[in-house]
Amino acid sequence: MEEAGATTGEANDLQSKTTGITITIKFSGRSIPVTLSLDATIGDLKSLLQPLTNVLPRGQKLIFKGKLLVDTTTLRASEVTGGAKVMLMASQGLHQGDGPILKEARSVPRRVDNANRMVNEKTQVRIDKNRLERWKVTRVVALSECNLKAIPDEVWSCGPSARVLDLSNNSVRDVPAHVGRLSSIQKLLLNANAIMDESINWEALTSLKYLTVLSVNQNHLTTLPSALGALTSLKQLHVANNKLTGLPTEIGLLTQLEVMKINNNRISTIPACIGDCNSLIEVDLSSNLLSELPETFGHLHDLKALYVSNNGLKSLPSTLFKMCLQLSTLDLHNTQITMDLLRQFEGWESFDQRRLLKHQKQLDFRVVGSAEFDEGADKN
């Protein structure tokens, strides 16, 4: 019987090594099941938890039976077995994306003024002839913060006279094909609305040959279509605070693009073709789920500012400092990149000189307490 028991124990141990065990991580009101081998280290566990919690490994404290678990120790040595419950505590600021993924809260419905309930849902604001004439004269259709749920038909009557359409801070859901009638539009501002993937007519947008600024911040977009590549005159693309998980490869066709701000999304990879956007001056990728950047970032010779804070980055493209000779602003706050690593990159000294020169020019505008590198890299 003892031999049979030993054999059974060995079999169970072998199964644990092969299939792994499942433990529960308790974090901010959530219970997160994680399956991994008994021979995996606590460091391996923290790496698995990073995309599930948005907390960087060095910001995680794992506690089991009142003891702090050490990164280099295995689950087996830590006596963590199947079904165990481990508490996760997150250090403030050491996160990627929008911050730690907390227990989902109930959404608060938007307050609606009783006086507006009887107003036509299509416009929710009175459009008079004087306003329409003013739009045509100024070439600016200004409709921000007008409590709109749809774009008024009067907008389309502006036709080629309109140069700017600002619909920010409304509740607009649809951008119909009629937008193609604004054939001379240069700036389209759709920030803070209720726009979703299927509710924006991208095919109509591709006919806007003079469009240089497209701003769709703070909506509900999860993807950008391949049609985006047809907007070849685009110089600024703002898609921050959405739910994007990636970028289309056609982004590389936007060779006139100078500013790209896609911060505060759920993007985990950047396509290598970003290197074809060789006019880029400013790129904001902060608060996403990036673990690396493509080497083609070195092709962006005009790049002056790169923001990648609140990501899981452990390194940078090897030629970034060597090839991007205009780069003077680099934000690495809340990443895993250290100063020791940065000093190893070719071209680091030249970049540091440019950065210091820029800070020197700003002395008259703000108080600078230190000339040391303070873009977020740890000292070690």
Sequence-ordered SSE layout with sheet pairings:
Blueprint: H1 2-19, E1 21-27, E2 30-36, H2 42-53, E3 60-64, E4 67-68, E5 85-90, H3 129-138, E6 140-142, H4 153-156, E7 164-166, E8 187-189, H5 202-205, E9 213-215, E10 236-238, E11 259-261, E12 282-284, E13 305-307, H6 320-323, E14 329-331, H7 339-342, H8 348-361
Parallel strand pairs: 1-5, 6-7, 7-8, 8-9, 9-10, 10-11, 11-12, 12-13, 13-14
Antiparallel strand pairs: 1-2, 3-4, 3-5
Q: Your description of this structure?
A:
The protein is α/β, with parallel strands linked by helices. Helices cover 18% and strands 14% of the residues. The chain has eight helices and 14 strands. It has helices spanning 2-19, 42-53, 129-138, 153-156, 202-205, 320-323, 339-342, 348-361; strands at residues 21-27, 30-36, 60-64, 67-68, 85-90, 140-142, 164-166, 187-189, 213-215, 236-238, 259-261, 282-284, 305-307, 329-331. The strands form two sheets. A nine-stranded parallel β-sheet has the order 6-7-8-9-10-11-12-13-14. Strands 2-1-5-3-4 form a five-stranded mixed β-sheet. The model is unreliable at 1-18 and 105-125 (pLDDT under 50).
